[in-house]
Prior knowledge:
Helix content: 40-55%
Order of helices and strands: HHEEEEEEHEEHHHHH
CATH superfamily of the largest domain: Jelly Rolls
Distance between the termini: 30 Å
Shape: globular
CATH topology of the largest domain: Jelly Rolls
CATH architecture of the largest domain: Sandwich
Number of strands: 8
Strand order of the largest sheet: 1-8-3-6
Number of helices: 8
Structural class: alpha+beta
Amino acid sequence: MDAFILDNIALHIDIDKDEANLFLSLLEHKSLKSKESLLQQGNVCRSINFVVKGCLRMYTSDENGKEHIVMFAPENWWCTDLFSFHTSSLSTHSIEALENTVVAQLTHQNLEKLYIKVPKFERFFRVLFQNGFIMYQNRISSELALPTDQKYKIFKKLYPGLNKRIAQKHIAAYLGITPVFLSMLRKKYNDIN
């Protein structure tokens, strides 16, 4: 498990053994069952979460109770309500496990300790947050401008194999379409199991 998250860190920064051990000592691990909440809308997000195993979804619910999925976080992805985490504001998002999931968590307090003791982690998280921001911009642009079949192709490229692991209703909610329409798209692209 430790090697998995250290490989993710190594994508952006080099750390020595002592720095790796310090980082690992600041993590907390949590196991979630499928459909278990990691964060509920209206609570404060207390951690940045790295998915070691399983898959999370981040979503928001409107006043009618309709869920709008913002992102999925399968293995090797980070997931948090960034605004709530950094400002201690109430979250506008919920995070839920779609499968039995294991996450490595870093609290705000431990993140600040990490920044002080190993400043190069500021670079890692800056790159991580920049990439997340770019992903959100691309998601908004595609939502506003692209036809549904293009959005589905982007989903499949961004989340390879996920369409075979999670409920189709969640993919439909992510794409903003009905499960029936998603079924038609899957048939069109021969994605039926």
